[in-house]
Design a protein that fits this description.
Na+/H+ antiporter like fold, alpha+beta, 6 strands, two-stranded antiparallel sheet, 4-stranded antiparallel sheet
């Protein structure tokens, strides 16, 4: 792990403080940067600074993936089938259930019974002020039509976007640290990346609709094109060209060595913007982070337990069981942040919820890595993971 990756939680914490301070010192900066956007039908759909940062997050990740390995996935059919089942048939729905229970019932009084959030109008939706849409009402805010929705539902939307984004980056590190099968992890990353291109928009739109939230289908698909398909294609083509002209050794030892830190740097830059915009909310109610973190933590532990337990029942070897459970438990928070910012706005509760996902990801996954190594002897081939 690089210095950035080992101490990601620390950098995120510093970004929270730095973003809040920036919001106090220069309150108009984030708004001006977010105003630099691609506008479609009068709606700011893509924030250019955020789009640049998020592309720089995704491109190095996609560049590392050898998608040709996906053809070999059949050799580990049980492990790949299990991770696909957990990620797409179980995890999204448990996320909705757990977060609805905690945010919409147990913590609703703490969040605020009447608290609301202003989110962007879905792309292509043209309703006059006062109209109802889902659980929201169209209102005029600073001359722009926005949707006013219950704040807890906005947080729920961010959690949903996390729940449908299986990790395709840091999970490679978690699998390696737990002494898992790196080849299998790469296969599962490749397969999940390809499946995510198809299912992320469809499943996200469905679950947001079930949650009585705006369903911006066009913007959802556009976000996948910009933040997943574009870096995926760029990563594939550039990887192919570099390997052909420079070779494998130069690609891994030189190119990736210098490129990889860009992912974390771009993520941290995005977080500074996010927290500069949400600084007032955090200062006024610092427990907001806690209310969101609790259900996200429980969701992570539940999915890990289901994956690890199912791997045991399927009699997978330890080297296959560890990465299978890890990829189910972790989230692709880069894509979730990108989509939340695009769909609901930089200042939305949904965007804040995805950032909380970043906060808890690293310490939780490191704890699960340690748990895997301590329990490896319960699986075939797992006696030596020290």
């Amino acid at each position: 792990m690089s210095l950035f990756e080992r101490h990601l939680t620390l950098w995120v914490a510093l970004c929270i403080v730095g973003g809040i301070l920036l919001g106090k010192i220069a309150p108009g900066l984030a708004e001006r940067l977010d105003g630099m956007a691609i506008v479609v039908n009068g709606a700011p759909v893509v924030s250019i600074p955020i789009a640049v940062c998020l592309f720089l997050m995704m491109y190095p990740i996609m560049l590392k993936i050898d998608f040709g390995q996906a053809l070999k996935a059949g050799r580990s059919g049980k492990a790949v089938g299990l991770t696909l089942f957990l990620n797409w048939a179980v995890k999204p729905f448990t996320m909705v259930a757990i977060c609805t229970l905690f945010l919409g019932v147990l913590f609703r009084a703490f969040i605020g019974e009447e608290a609301t959030d202003l989110v962007r109008m879905p792309l292509g939706l043209d309703l006059p002020a006062g109209s109802e849409h889902g659980a929201g009402v169209v209102v005029m805010h600073e001359g722009v039509r926005m949707l006013e929705i219950p704040l807890w539902r906005s947080y729920l939307a961010g959690c949903i976007l996390l729940g449908i984004a299986p990790c395709t980056a840091m999970v490679l590190i978690w699998g390696h640290l737990s002494r898992g099968n790196d080849g299998l992890t790469l296969v599962m990353v490749a397969v999940n990346s390809l499946v995510m291109v198809v299912l992320y928009g469809l499943l996200g739109g469905f679950l947001l609709g079930v949650g009585r939230l705006p369903v911006p289908w066009q913007a959802m698909l556009l976000s996948m094109g910009i933040y997943v398909v574009l870096p995926l294609v760029a990563g594939y083509l550039s990887r192919k060209w570099i390997l052909a002209h420079k070779g494998e050794a130069w690609f891994r030892e030189k190119f990736l060595h210098h490129l990889t830190p860009l992912t974390i740097i771009a993520l941290l830059a995005t977080l500074v913007l996010l927290f500069s915009f949400k600084g007032d909310v955090i200062v006024e109610n610092p427990l907001t982070i806690l209310w969101i973190a609790i259900p996200l933590t429980l969701q992570t532990l539940l999915i890990f337990a289901l994956g690890y337990g199912a791997a045991k029942l399927l009699k997978l070897g330890y080297q296959d069981a560890a990465p299978t459970a890890m990829i189910g438990a972790s989230n692709h928070f880069e894509v979730a942040i990108a989509t939340a910012v695009m769909l609901f706005g930089l200042s939305s509760g949904a965007a804040l919820a995805t950032v909380v996902g970043v906060l808890i990801e690293v310490p939780l996954m490191l704890a699960l890595v340690a748990f895997c190594k301590r329990t490896s002897h319960h699986f075939p081939g797992g006696g030596d993971t020290g």
